[in-house]
Amino acid sequence: MMEIRFTLNGRAVTAMAEADDSLYTVLRGLGISSVKCGCETTNCGLCTVHMDGQAVLSCSIPAPRCEGHSIVTLEGLQEEAKALGGCLADEGAEQCGFCAPGLMMNVLALAKENPAATDEEIDAYLAGNLCRCSGYMSQRRAVKKYLAMAAGEVRA
Amino acid sequence: MASYRNYVMAQTLEEAYALNQKKSSVIVAGNMWLRMCGLKKQTAIDLSRLGLDKIEEREDAFVIGSMASLRDVETHAGLNACFGGVFARAFAPIVGTQFRRGATIGGSEYSRFGFSDVSAVLLALDTRVVLYKRGEVPLSQYQTEAWDRDILTHIVIPKGRTAAVESVRLSATDIPILVCAASVGADGLRLVLGARPARAMIVAEGMKPEADAAAFEEIAQRTAFGSNLRASEEYRRKVAPVLMLRAAMNCIAAGEEERA
Ligand SMILES: Cc1cc2nc3c(=O)[nH]c(=O)nc-3n(C[C@H](O)[C@H](O)[C@H](O)COP(=O)(O)OP(=O)(O)OC[C@H]3O[C@@H](n4cnc5c(N)ncnc54)[C@H](O)[C@@H]3O)c2cc1C
Ligand code: FES
Ligand code: FES
User: In terms of pTM, does the model score above 0.90?
Assistant: First the structure.
């Protein structure tokens, strides 16, 4: 067991981790239930969190590597999550909803990195967030709506 | 799930190298692949605190630290301006943005996966790998070697060639069925085929920079392809000349644009 200190959603935390734990395991241990593991092959995007402001796959980040870093999950972005969740619901983009937490974290990263993303750029940025229900068109509409809304708020 | 007794954040390359000489140790880079391997090891050696994530532009070459992510490389303005934008295009189909922010260029090149888009592009560009003990080795040689216990510290890409890449996938973000990277430089056109499904290799060099369909057909006929779950040998041989043609045309056009 080792002790790992990092910032989680703005608060300093200390967690105990095994040598082979991932950030995902540690977050679940800390009661962060928005983060889920959807695959064993590092390619579904469901476990996405922000590490130092960038979207990463928590299932593949070795826990000891988080020492001193800042981790943000959907729990720490309630306001943005509410607005984006509304867009997804309005466009019928959530069916089983299982993919939503990872998708939302990546959309929120996109909104910071490329707030005026084109359709093509949206598709490319979110290609690593698999969804088995929506067919992606409704998700793209929702993301466009959210980006426009977020840009409006910045201007206002 | 991997199983490790100790997780060591290496403080120096010498420490990492010394620990890695034991069969009971394993190097951890992006961990994207390793995570799936289910290895049971005594010691995991983490390279993330060694400052190996930098991309440096020198007068005649780019020097990329092995821990730079695929995303760092594909979004690097200098690299893309110099080599015809090939990295952005070549890496875009690899899983997703979060994935490529984790996967490293060194982990990709050490692994030398047959399906690697990364190896195919780097081979088209006179790349050399820098190994901690052995020093610099041409990638064309490294590609043919077995995995060893040295540490890949940097990737050196000399300036002077423009490249383009084409791949075929069963579905977006899946691993490729076939990759073709083409480049033009002072010695003419070079073609690399990867995901044959064996490791990428140079299949033609010093050709006239022309879209010579008959020559590409002839290259496909003499190149070794194989069958696997994703595609048959025959399918790969049929598709290869088309990819060579497209990649060649694109890199010739990009080269002309750069000179204009
Ligand atoms: C689901 C999935 C899909 C993929 N699809 C594609 C694709 O379409 N195209 C493509 O090109 N690639 C693909 N890859 C491969 C990926 O791009 C990376 O090449 C791979 O994950 C290895 O990089 P890493 O940094 O994650 O290395 P790790 O997983 O950390 O390590 C891989 C191996 O390399 C060793 N190693 C790592 N770094 C070094 C070093 N510096 N020196 C010595 N040894 C080292 C490790 O010990 C380990 O054996 C895919 C991988 C996965 C998991
Ligand atoms: S759980 Fe699927 S990518 Fe992390
Ligand atoms: S809504 Fe069911 S997986 Fe996306």
Answer: yes
